[in-house]
């Protein structure tokens, strides 16, 4: 069996991981619907807060099994105070704040909207990389980013216009779910820039594990302060853990493992191309898992977003550059993929 897997192309593992990551939003929302159908004393045991916290716990356990050796002091004793501050900042933004906003957005709008509007992150990363880090950008990547941004604006404007055509609120009635998704995308973009600027000398395993654990702790404390000590009263529900173990095994363990196996044997151009298909995978998952049929606004705006993604990919292939540092590539691609359900 091991020899069989070794003969498979690394890109195959990437594409399977893309399908899994793309389905994360739809599966998360479906789990909360299952919880709503099996209330405990009037409460949903598979609430978004429970899914996020327990999902992070499952992720931390998996990452510890994979990267536990990287917790040795030799891997972090050399870090400066600035490194630690950057690491904490990234953990708060990408490990707690952004996932919490995206989970809340899933409760308020369609998963398809969350998938498409969250594509605001790559154009923001490109812009911030140019203005803050001074990185050179490929012309076609800029064009692709602008086209994708226009597609996101088209979705929001068309959707708002169509839904409020008979309302006096007009364009002011932008959905809260869409706004939360956009804020979450901004948080992820800032976290990516922080990690690019300050965290190149940190191993990807230690980085992922620290971010996940600290993100879970911060989210737990914040939820307790905002909602009260009884907010996680159903955290040990058998129904919750039954589904979260499956969720953790597929989304966290299998998805992450296949993604990192694919990273090891694939050039950056193929990794970037595979990551760009996550929105398409997410839209398909929303249809098959949740039965969400794309609206006219999502069809038009989504087509523009996907066109922008492909223009960016042409720019990346034209540039034809590889990152020499494999660990840097691993962390960068892990961030560029965006939210993966954990």
Automatic annotation (TrEMBL):
Main location, first listed in the record: membrane
Lineage, uppermost ranks: Bacteria, Bacillati, Cyanobacteriota, Cyanophyceae, Nostocales
Chain ranges of the EamA domain: 12-156, 176-311
Membrane disposition: Multi-pass membrane protein
Keyword list, A-Z: Cell membrane, Membrane, Transmembrane, Transmembrane helix
Protein name: EamA domain-containing protein
Family, per entry: Belongs to the EamA transporter family.
Transmembrane segments: 45-67, 87-107, 139-158, 170-194, 206-228, 240-261, 273-290, 296-316
Compartments where located: Cell membrane
Cellular component, GO, one term: plasma membrane
């Amino acid at each position: 069996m091991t020899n069989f897997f070794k003969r498979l192309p690394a890109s195959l593992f990437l594409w399977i991981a893309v399908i899994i990551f793309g389905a994360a939003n739809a599966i998360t929302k479906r789990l909360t619907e299952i919880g709503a159908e099996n209330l405990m004393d009037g409460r949903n045991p598979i609430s978004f807060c429970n899914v996020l916290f327990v999902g992070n716990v499952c992720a931390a356990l998996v990452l510890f099994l994979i990267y536990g050796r990287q917790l040795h002091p030799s891997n972090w004793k050399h870090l400066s105070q600035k490194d630690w501050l950057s690491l904490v900042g990234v953990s708060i933004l990408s490990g707690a704040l952004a996932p919490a906003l995206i989970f809340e957005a899933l409760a308020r709008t369609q998963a398809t909207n969350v998938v498409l509007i969250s594509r605001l992150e790559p154009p923001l990363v490109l812009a911030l990389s140019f203005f803050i880090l001074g990185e050179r950008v490929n012309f076609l990547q800029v064009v692709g980013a602008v086209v994708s941004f226009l597609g996101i604006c088209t979705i929001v404007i068309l959707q708002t216009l169509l839904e409020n055509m008979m309302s006096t609120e007009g364009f002011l009635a932008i959905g809260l779910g869409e706004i939360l998704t956009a804020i979450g995308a901004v948080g992820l973009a800032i976290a990516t820039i922080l990690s690019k600027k300050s965290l190149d000398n940190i191993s990807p395993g230690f980085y992922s594990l620290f971010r996940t654990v600290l993100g879970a702790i911060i989210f737990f404390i914040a939820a307790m302060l905002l909602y009260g000590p009884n907010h996680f009263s159903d955290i040990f529900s058998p129904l919750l853990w039954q589904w979260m173990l499956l969720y953790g095994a597929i989304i966290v363990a299998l998805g992450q493992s296949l993604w990192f196996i694919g990273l090891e044997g694939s050039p950056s151009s193929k990794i970037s191309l595979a990551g760009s298909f996550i929105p398409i995978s997410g839209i398909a998952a929303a249809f098959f898992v949740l039965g969400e049929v794309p609206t006219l606004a999502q069809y038009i705006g989504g087509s523009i977003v996907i066109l922008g993604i492909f223009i960016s990919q042409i720019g990346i292939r034209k540039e034809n550059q590889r990152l020499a540092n494999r660990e840097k590539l691993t962390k960068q691609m892990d961030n560029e993929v965006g939210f993966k359900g954990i």
